[in-house]
Amino acid sequence: MATYDYDLVVIGGGSGGLSCSKTAAELGAKVAVLDFVKPSPHGSTWGLGGTCVNVGCIPKKLMHQAGLLGHALHDAGQYGWAVPENVTHSWESLVRSVQDYIGGLNWNYRVQLRDKQVTYFNEYATLVDAHTIQKTNKKGVASTITAKHIVLATGGRPRYPDIPGKEHGISSDDIFMLKTSPGKTMIVGASYIALECAGFLRSLGYDVTVCVRSIFLRGFDQQMADNVTAHMNAHGVKFLRETLPTKIEKLPSGRLNVSYSRGQESLSEEFDTVLFAIGRDACIKDLNLDGVGVKFDPKSMKVLTDDHDCTSVPNIFALGDILLNKPELTPVAIQAGMLLARRLFAGETELCDYENVCTTVFTPKEYSCCGLAEEAAIARFGQEDIEVFHTTFTPLEHTVAHRVDQDDGYCKLVCRKSDNMRVLGIHYAGPNAGEVMQGFGIALRLKATKKDFDQLIGIHPTCAENFTTLKVTKSSGTELTKAGC
Predict the structure, then answer these.
(1) Gap between the Cα atoms of 134 and 455, Å rounded
(2) What percent of the chain has pLDDT over 70?
(3) Fewer Cβ atoms within 10 A, N terminus or C terminus of the chain?
């Protein structure tokens, strides 16, 4: 029987890789983790923990919170607080506080690996064969280790457009550690990353323009996407629709002149910062997957796996954002990594369920969902078999503050008529969207029907209780009217 240096080697120290490695070690396996972050084109780098901790969910949510606090200051006067008129915000202080917190998380992850006796290599990994990994340290010194099982969990990095001057732009790899204020900013893209960055930057007082090629939030419910972007627009975010940047020039002043096309027009405008958020590419190019027989989709460069997260090579598995047609979400990678380790080292059989996963877009008006978008439900089951129950509502906390109509909330249930009005999708736009959806998400896993929601007694006064009193259907054509207490 062949012997190996390790029972398991995980390539990638993000959420999925750390979850898998720690669980495997708890089950008695000898485990190693290899993680190495190549600097972004702008020069940014970070510690152990992957995208979510360093340049994703964590700093994004903290900066979103900073923006919400700014809105709260505007509301505070109506609630009796004497707030000075010229309250200012310090970008530098925010970045310092966020990075201090992230630095603590990086250290904690290293301590956790050490406590669980997982060997950590801050080195770059390449596959030599199905059981051998070459690791190269920052000095360029290479060596090899062997493993019975290998897990690929290398995540993704932001994509840059192929235009002159792209080197002058930054990405989400850089914005959260930018040492100076971004100033007037153009954001290129319409993904959730683009809209979230646009949202918190505008909430912090910056002039923000979003350059949109086609639709907002591709893959999400389009009515909901339009709802949250209309709110952003009402609060000062400018959207350039059907627009593509064509060139970026750095001026003697240090500002950036962005040329862009909109239809037949060629226009230009000066900005202090250009942030690209046009998608992410899986980090698999240097893994030598072809050389060892691991199959991947040549168009998306995503790894192909079966229901057991196994690649085309029986002892090599993959997790997280590098998988084809799987949700690119931290909790998904954590769950999949934990379950994979249990299958490998505890004889368990449970698979990760990639369906009906809750998610939230942290725009200023937050949007959360679980299950099918309205368009997806219609495409799958037909328009005649789908009913949508919906309503608008004014969050009670917005009433005294006299928030504008665009701040109103909206929610809907997408149901299948022929399956006893089973709920296929839950959608919510309003305050605390993630907290609302985390609770309701279990309903989809339990195959809840519209009647189950009707029989649930709400908590009053809350935004979430609107799901328990939905009466108006889209098919009825009845105009929605807001109700108060």
Answers:
(1) 59
(2) 99
(3) N
Dist CA 232 CA 210 (whole Å): 11
The strand pairing partners of 427, in sequence order, are 369, 412
Place of tokens 């027989």: 293
Q: What is the mean pLDDT of residues 274-282?
A: 97
| Residue 235 exposure: Cα atoms within 13 Å on the Cβ side | 28
1 pLDDT more than 80: no
* Catalytically annotated residue among 42, 149, 235, 460: 460
- In the beta sheet, which residues pair with residue 316? 150
Token reading at 175: 């914005």
How does strand 273-276 pair with strand 359-361? unpaired
Tokens (6 digits) for 147: 């493993």
Report pLDDT for 485: 58
Burial class (CB in 10 A: 0-12, 13-18, 19+), 178: middle
8 A C-beta contact, residue 234 and residue 172: no
- How many of the other CB atoms lie within 10 Å of CB of 457? 8
226's CB contacts (< 8 A; 6+ apart) are 216
Give the residue among 114, 157, 137, 128 at the shortest CA–CA distance from 34. 137
For residue 325, is pLDDT > 90? yes
Find the mean pLDDT for residues 196-203: 98
Whether the CB-CB separation of 50 and 36 falls below 8 Å is answered with no
Whether residue 484 is predicted with pLDDT greater than 70 in this model: the reply is no
Going by C-beta distance under 8 Å and a sequence separation of 6 or more, which residues neighbour residue 304?
295, 296, 297, 311, 312, 324
| Nearest CA-CA partner of 410 in 395, 398, 392 | 392
Told to judge if 131 belongs to the known catalytic residues of this protein, a careful annotator would answer no
Q: Whole-angstrom Cα distance, residue 207 to residue 236?
A: 8
* Cα distance between residue 300 and residue 323, in whole Å: 10
pLDDT recorded at residue 431: 97
Average pLDDT of span 248-266? 96
Strands 119-121 and 31-34: parallel
Rg (CA), the chain: 24
